[in-house]
């Protein structure tokens, strides 16, 4: 694939991941193994309150095709097939769920040195169609996305974004919710290894005059341990600690508290991911 501006979903992704990724208030345990034939098996057990759920997923790669099959405790089978380079600089992703066939969809991505275009359609009689386009370079890009309902013949969404990325920093602005909201974010790496960073995000919804400011950071204590924290203007404080107990095997302890209502108990989460 070309080194172009990336997908529209990549606009603001680095700041978004730092503020949201790995934060959880559940108990999650997953273990991954690889067979000699190249099949990857992953089993996940999630405890949320008093609810237990288990997922088993299998990945198999053959030439330019990747097959991913996931089975949950409700006997739902989700299959995703990703094929690269059917045509030059393209990727096709087909997904379908049994027994819910209405969730099936097909996505085609095209990558160019100065543009990226994606088209997604649900595989049913009157599908929802999503289109995205991003123009520019890896340094600066402009993008837009739109969703269209062929049944009601109306747009379900249209969003616009701009991103500026440099080796040690990145900034983005996204006009979303049919131009009813705007989100601006900025991330600054604090070291050459990019294991420590600071981030800020400002969100405003015009129709409700809602404003939310969030700040956060990532700090690498050593090469095995990192700490993250975030605080928003609504008083929500979150923090987590990640430690690599074995190569590629990570334990994460996270928590969240509402500083404006301290009488509520804080929520904690624990995640353990074991990989070969």
From TrEMBL:
Coiled coil: none annotated. Belongs to the eukaryotic mitochondrial porin (TC 1.B.8.1) family. This is Mitochondrial outer membrane protein porin 2-like. It comes from Brassica rapa subsp. trilocularis.
């Amino acid at each position: 694939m070309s080194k172009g501006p990336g997908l529209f979903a990549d606009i603001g992704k680095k700041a978004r991941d730092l503020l949201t990724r790995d934060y959880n208030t559940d108990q999650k345990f997953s273990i991954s193994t690889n067979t000699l034939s190249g099949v990857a098996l992953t089993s996940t057990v999630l405890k949320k309150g008093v609810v237990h759920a288990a997922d088993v997923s299998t990945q198999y790669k053959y030439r330019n095709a990747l097959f991913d099959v996931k089975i949950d405790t409700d006997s739902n089978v989700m299959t995703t097939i990703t094929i690269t380079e059917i045509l030059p600089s393209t990727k096709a992703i087909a997904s379908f769920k049994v027994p819910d066939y209405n969730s099936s969809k097909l996505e085609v991505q095209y990558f160019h040195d100065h543009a990226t275009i994606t088209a997604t359609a649900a595989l049913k009689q009157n599908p929802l169609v999503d289109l995205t386009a991003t123009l520019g370079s890896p340094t600066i890009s402009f993008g837009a996305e739109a969703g269209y309902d062929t049944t009601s013949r109306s747009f379900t969404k249209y969003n616009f974004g701009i991103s500026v990325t440099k080796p040690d920093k990145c900034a983005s602005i996204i006009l979303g919710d049919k131009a009813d909201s705007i989100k601006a974010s900025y991330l600054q790496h604090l070291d050459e290894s990019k294991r420590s960073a600071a981030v800020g995000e400002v969100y405003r919804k015009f129709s409700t005059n809602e404003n939310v400011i969030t700040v956060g950071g990532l700090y690498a204590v050593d090469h095995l341990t990192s700490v993250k924290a975030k605080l928003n203007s609504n008083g929500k404080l979150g923090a987590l600690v990640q430690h690599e107990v074995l190569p590629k095997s990570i334990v994460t302890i996270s928590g969240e508290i509402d500083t404006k209502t301290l009488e509520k108990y804080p929520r904690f989460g624990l995640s353990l991911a074991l990989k070969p």
